[in-house]
Amino acid sequence: MSNKFYITTPIYYINAKPHIGSAYTTIAADVLARFHRMIGDDTFFLTGTDEHGEKNEAIAKKENIDPQEYSDKMSAEFELTWDSLNISNDNFIRTTNKKHKQAVQKALQYMYDKGYIYKGEHSGLYCPGCEQYKTEKDLDKGLCPDHKTKPKVVSEESYMFKMSAFSNKIKKAIEKDELLITPKSKKKEILSFYKDGLKDISFSRTNTTWGVELPWDKKQVSYVWPDAFLNYLTGLDWSGTAGKAPKMWPANVHLMSKDILRVHATIWPAMLLALDLPLPKELFIHGFFLVDGHKMSKSIGNVISPDELIKKYGVDGSRYLLMSATPFGHDGDISFQKFDEKYNADLANGLGNLVARSLTLTLKLFDAGLKLKKTDDSQEIDKAWKSYSNKLENIEIDKALKMVNEQIQYLDGLITKTKPWELIKTKSAKVEKIMYNILETIYHISLMLLPFMPETSDKILESLGIDPTKEKKKNFKDLTKWGRLSEKAKVKKIDILFPRI
Fold first, then answer.
1. Does position 147 have pLDDT exceeding 80, yes or no?
2. Which residues pair with 121 in a beta bridge?
3. Architecture, CATH, for domain 336-479
4. Which DSSP category does 163 fall into?
């Protein structure tokens, strides 16, 4: 029986088009989903858009269109962008979906009936940009650290969520890694937040009509976070029934950037406990991108869009550059200059050149009347697969790519050392084994690249005379065995994979 693997991205807020930050999260989730499918896990990958809230209502009003029309337009932007990046999500959830809204209402009604949601009044410092209340401790010189704006003092009648009732239970789950927070520095950060215990929070709004209507009080709509969080369940066709988890729940990994860790480590687990549902297994937190040392900002003009990357580096080039840009889980500083250098070094001169020259040498081998001869030199590749799998299972995405590059460098060194072109001229029999080792290793490299660069992986397999569709259906254990390549492989030349920039 296969293992279950359920991975999510956050659902993205539609107040702006997709940027490389959201692309980074989504590609990373896609890499992990593709890897888990490859090893035979029963995999489900969810992403989507978060469409309610006063901010989106205000933008729609400014554009003189209905909020639903605005939501449809912006949600389509995300779907198109993920399609262009070859994202293999199993579902794309929208919070304006009728079934989602019905499930949210059913869940909120259950929590209200159980006494976990109660009527009260909430006052505090509210940041419209974050759609969150802030404490004085959260602010930097009186300003929201993310939006650099002064929060509004808001006082309104509100339905409150009794989050305080679950504080100790969630804290213990985090301490015991039953709710694993990775990297460890983020676990420490969250536990420090739990020192004073969780406070009850507002769960409804009266200042906007663009949201999920509370079933027991139609004058109020749900706060954006409970509506958004429940996507992780409704994306699995959950109907809102407390105590009844969907087949794929709990999530193995909720992947997200560090700015939304706190709400995921407080509000979301408290909601799940209130609904008698299991906690997710892991929250994996990655960092932010800086561009030439500066935070991305429209005013500075340094925001990089996924479309710009694809236009310059292609789909797989863009996926590779983002996944190798920084140690996964940490902040990274990027620039087009750095991307150009890495693209040329790793892809044009590295992988692309290795594959092209190896295929050319093999065709010369055949022209000389020689053939490929199988070997049993499996030790190096066995070790590589073990390391690669371990790294992706532990979400060390950049390290897995680094390991693949080590295999490319190893082959480059082998070619330089053995000089197969000279051995072909003299028709030395040992070149038949050397060229087999080179092509067989390229076969394994192509499979290791499958989660990262699916189109490139397919092209390399085809150049080795292998049907990618049939090959990918095979058992992972068989795929990773040495000796998959036939001695009679119908090798053919390949178009330039990565033209130099």
1. no
2. 157
3. Orthogonal Bundle (1.10)
4. G
